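Q: For a teaching handout, I want to show students what a protein-ligand complex looks like in token form. Below are the inputs, and the small molecule is pyridoxal-5'-phosphate. Please produce the holo structure.
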Amino acid sequence: MPANSTTSKPVVNPSSTDPVFDLIHQEEIRQSDGLELIPSENYVSADVLKAMGSVLTNKYSEGYPGKRYYGGNENVDQIETFAIERAKQLFHADHANVQPHSGANANEAVYFAWCQPGDTILAMSLPAGGHLTHGSPVTRSAKIYHFVGYGVTPEGDIDYDELERLAREHQPKIILVGYSAFMKIPDFARVAKIAAAIPDCMLMADMAHVAGLIAGGVHPNPLDFGFHVMTTTTHKTLRGPRGGLIVSRGKVSNPLHKVPHTLEKLPTLIDRAVFPGTQGGPLDHVIAAKAVAFGEDLQPAFQTYAQQIVANAKALAAELQNLGFTLQGGGTDNHLILVNVKDSFGIDGKTYETALDKVGLTLNANALPTDKGGAFRPSGVRLGTPAMTTRGLGLPEMKIIAGWMKRVLDLCVKAGSEDQLDQYAAELETIRAEVRTLARQFPIPGIPQPTE
Ligand SMILES: *Cc1c(COP(=O)(O)O)cnc(C)c1O
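A: Here is the structure, written as tokens, with pyridoxal-5'-phosphate included.
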């Protein structure tokens, strides 16, 4: 434990003696003193935190603005309307539902809106980079719908030929483009063309990871290419509170599509699928925080942020390659990097994740598309730049981080396995101190900095 972590006073509600507040304070120190490389995490602004911690959590508002099942919603109605209008503006959408409690809930609501039990959904398979909610057998959705998975090519792009073949063969009700570990820009137009040949096929994009890049203008928007619906989380690159969002084009359906009439009902079907279909009362404090975050995302500064996320990711990827790391897909076009540590250095992703954790660099072990290591000993680690970019780290720091990653990797190679890492505790502690010193030069937004 760093010597200075015990000397600073709890900054959250210091009058409370509940140990939970001390733990929140410890978490503030952990976040401040480490560097967050997990690509799905970010730091929200003080304003977003303020909205989340407000009295709006006291309110019940089942329903939608102007159509509630409870009284006293005059303020909540206006807040939710702000969130909806800003989300529509961000993504050039005709309709937005800001109530999903999470990305998983948003996806489930869209499936529920458009499919009957047993209907087929064609989505990227989990090993290829897709998400658990896209048909993993451990999910509720997979028990209700029939998921078929498409994969990626050896170069790391979507296997569009396979996607087309599977679409023809299975006649899916939804073709879903979305992922949590994919480093290329999807060819949305090509997928829209494939879907146009399938009757009643709805095009869905799950942009949970890259929505902030879309909002920031550095990534194409699937709704501009004939996609009907886009789901996303609001806490990843969008830099808002934890939650989900569904945006759709109601009036303008896929011009190539055979069934515009039914698709025009999509916004209504989606609203009903969120509430009462799959959720109860909305989280009004979180919706307020979404409104605030979307307001921030609409500012020119957010475009600069999105550009810097990608520039940082490309710089980090290039430096890692210089240092001998093999990258899945040969690099990145977005904020994500998937490193194959097994092939490059004979170390599994979990061992590397554990060692990096000890120096204050947080990321996650991740399976590669053709992984033999399984979910618990995968061959890769996944990292990304959205959180570091929020803190203001730039190109020089990316080189420094890659250098630390190589030093930690060399220690892993020397140790040979996770349980032998303790032999190198002193070396790891040296790197830990360097990470902390740099991290403290880039305060995280929204909280008082830990004091010495
Ligand atoms: C993170 C993620 C989700 C799930 O979001 P939660 O808020 O954790 O439920 C869904 N889809 C994709 C592609 C994701 O990356």
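A: Two things your students might notice: The pocket of pyridoxal-5'-phosphate is lined by residues 40, 102-104, 107, 131, 133, 178-180, 206, 208-209, 233, 244 (CB under 6 Å). Residues 1-13, 252-261 have pLDDT under 50 and may be disordered.
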